Amino acid sequence: MVTADAIDIQNVRFAYPRNEGEIYDHLNLKIKQGDRFGVFGPNGAGKTTLMNLMTGLLYPQEGSIKLLGHNTATRNKEINKLFGFVPQELSFYKELTPAENLHFFGAWAGLDGNTIMKRTRELLHILGLEDVRNKQVQTFSGGMKRRVNLAIGVIHNPKVLFLDEPTVGVDVQTRHAIISYLKELNNNGTTLVYTSHQLNEAEDLCNEMALIDEGKIVAKGSINELLEQHNTSSLENLFLKITGKSYRN
Amino acid sequence: MYKLWASILKDTKILLRDKVGLALIFGMPVLLVIIVTSIQNSAFQMVNKNKLTTVLCNKDTGAVSKQFITALDKVGLLNLIPVPASNNEKDIKQLVREKGAMIAILIPPDFSQNVHDKAKNVSSKALESFGLPADSNNKHVTSVPVTLYYDPVLQDAYRFSIEGAIQGALQLTGSSETLKQLYTSLNDKPLPDSTERELLGSQSPINEVPLSRNQRDVPNATQHNVPSWTIFAMFFIILSLGGSVVREKRSGSFIRLKTLPTPFWIGLLSKQLTYLVVTFLQAVIICCIGIWLFPHIGLPGLKLPTDTLALLVVTIACGWCAVSYAICIGVFAETQEQANGFGAMSVVILAAIGGLMVPSFAMPASFHTISKISPLHWCLQAYYELFLKDGTLANVLPNVLSLILIAIIFQALTLWGLRRKNLI
User: Fold this and answer.
1) Quick one: which of A122, A129, A187 has its CA closest to A156?
2) With 70 as the cut, is the pLDDT of residue B184 above it?
3) Domain B51-200 has CATH 3.40.1710
4) With an 8 Å Cβ cutoff, are B252 and A90 in contact?
């Protein structure tokens, strides 16, 4: 039996309706199940657009995007049960407590009350939020808010987890805790698709990566292979070697 | 169902933790309805019970001016404060300020003689027309005006009422004098007081009947204001609901919800149900205040319409329209400031053109059509039909259907806006 790829992007063309020019033209990308896949690129390269295409927030004008074998273009909401999304913005209700946020998003993820309670206990424990479970999130530090943002994305045990800059603006301890938890999730079978500007962190977390620039995949493979292939010692050097040193808007 | 329940729980908790929003939703309308009803009730009573302090300067020494003052006093509209006849116009202005009066009446020095001459003139003409002998030396008499000074703050409606009262008293005084002249000419003796009273006091009384469907009490400030400000309060939820929609959009929560396996209409339905309950509670609270608190603070108590089902249907229709409008504004506003600023201003404008501030019948003709685009107009018409005319569900059905149509338009605009912004 052939296992479907976590993500299978075939000949995708995408352009924003009111913008001139295409963001992606004939984009092809496969991410295998179980991968810890990093999507990197300079500002404006199209990382967030790619993430939005993969999560069904945007739909391609041509080509297909399959998530675990399901075409996202069908707009079937059942597909959404298969993946979780941790956006860069702190996308939750600051007036609610972490437990209340998890209850609401858990229900929207299709979980029943008992499962939500169980998962809420687990996640608050793992992410160190047990003591503040009944405090409004608006009173939290940046790092605590990031952990709440992550917990919401994984409440329903998704098979694929999309993470857009999950550790931006957090201290070393929080970053370490988040990365450790993401590795643990991956060990339990969750595919991670991750974007970040923290290349040291990416080097630690990812096993596969794609480097995007101006709507094209300019490098793809395992991190070790790519470093060897381009004769560089770090992801940052590889990044600069391929995408150049000039400013990007 | 569990998703809807979780959403309602979330929306309710967010609402309950928004203390400022709650104060605006519940506190402000309660204050508004108490203050405006008290003021308007006082204004109603000014015409009926309360007397307007009036400085009276009588420069005339004759009997007619005294009769005129008595007639004016009997109208019951003015609390007359006599001041010495030696005062000039400047002194009168000063006295108006000192006495805290809004108006002053100046009776000219030759008032009695003028009225007397006019009466004699009229009576001679009357006798001539009857073919009876009359004084042929009559000449044209020019009227000497009574002067009314008024504070510019005094609104036209009150000034016209006072003018009407003065005209009435002048009419009565003139008629009395003419009658006396006629009687004396015909009978060579003065008119007896009893005959004068009988002749002058024989006007037909006015029987005032409100055009309600059954015989209810005369409408008062409470019956007018409670419905008006309940509607205003319902639409003012825009400050909480519109802002809440903007916050969810800007925080990225809408986008996150889009990635979850739940249709977005559950979120919209949850907000509508939660805030529909809020609008219903607003109506209940304001009505309770009208029924139980108003009589304790000297205001007329609110009388609920007989058709309770109609009241329920109208309240739900108004609430749904208000909620739909607030969500629609929230979807199109880019920032919370935009939603609050535009929301509040637009509700005030819609209230004004809808007849909440100035009655529709008093508006220019062109506004009669414009007022129909305001959902608040249909809400007000429906409530007035129930509270003032004691109408039934059948009577308010056209208004309810109009409200439902307007709410559907707002819902359609909301969906279009959400799709356009790629939020659903």
Assistant:
1) A122
2) yes
3) yes
4) yes
